[in-house]
From TrEMBL:
CDD domains according to UniProt: SDR_c (cd05233)
Lineage: Eukaryota, Fungi, Dikarya, Ascomycota, Pezizomycotina
Source organism (scientific name): Lachnellula occidentalis
Protein name: Putative oxidoreductase
InterPro entries per UniProt: NAD(P)-bd_dom_sf, SDR_fam
Domain of life assignment: Eukaryota
Gene Ontology MF term list: oxidoreductase activity, acting on the CH-OH group of donors, NAD or NADP as acceptor
Record-annotated membrane-spanning stretches: none
């Protein structure tokens, strides 16, 4: 894609903007004219990065544009709600929400990993984007649309790891003769989905989308799929 984007008068929030990808995103948005609310736990760069400019992101932006820093823990609802409120208080509205904050905790084998490290990762990497969408979209719904008819844009920065399966545990524990598999059985008739199946319009949509393959539980064991996994026939 070539050319420039006109983001003049647009207001953006970028979480995790003090370093890395978040910093690059914030600077890119500012270079196109957006006012940027930079958010992170601290404004300073994270040690060990590859940035050559050492000034905090918002200070770099304010040399030629508009920006503020607002501290927020992306995993805490009160922080994210206050972050959105700060953007509106400073710049009048919110047009762009970039949920970028993410962490990488622990490199231990799963049996040795702490529950705290797992919980912290889920809190920031999964709960964080949920909170960002929740409060940003609530604000956008209250705003008058732009002349284009748009109320806002939400961008969730994820990882290729969410699209490509990496068999870490199966490989990690294969030498110990411990087999780790994942089972994705599809759409099953259970109490969890009864309300959807009893909604005639939704049932038809599901039936069409799944080409009629809505399994009952008997089909699952008749096909021996689960037994196949746990009786040594799968890797």
């Amino acid at each position: 894609m070539s050319g420039t984007l006109n983001l003049q008068s647009r207001v953006a929030i970028v979480t995790g903007s003090s370093s890395g990808a978040g910093r690059a995103i914030a600077l890119a948005l500012a270079s196109e004219g957006a006012s940027v609310v930079c958010s992170d736990l601290i404004p300073e760069l994270r040690p060990g990065g590859y940035e050559t400019e050492t000034a905090p992101t918002h200070e770099v932006i304010t040399r030629t544009g508009k920006a503020i820093f607002k501290r927020a823990d992306a995993s805490l609802p009160q922080d994210v709600e206050a972050l959105v409120a700060a953007a509106v208080a400073e710049f009048g509205r919110l047009d762009i929400m970039v949920n970028n904050a993410g962490i990488f905790c622990g490199q231990n084998r799963i049996a040795d990993e702490s529950v705290e490290a797992f919980d912290k990762t889920i809190a920031v990497n999964t709960r964080g984007p949920f909170l960002g969408m929740k409060y940003a979209i609530a604000q956008m719904m209250k705003q008058e649309p732009r002349p284009t008819g748009d109320r806002g844009w939400v961008v969730n920065i994820s990882s290729i790891g969410g699209l490509v399966g990496l068999p870490m545990e199966p490989i990690d524990y294969a030498p110990d003769k411990i087999h780790v598999n994942g089972v994705c059985p599809g759409f099953l008739k259970t109490a969890m989905v009864r309300s959807a199946l009893e909604d005639s319009a939704l049932h038809k949509e599901l039936h069409d989308a799944l080409r009629g393959r809505i399994w009952d539980l008997r089909q699952m064991w008749e096909r021996r799929s689960f037994s196949f996994v746990v009786m040594g026939q799968a890797g």
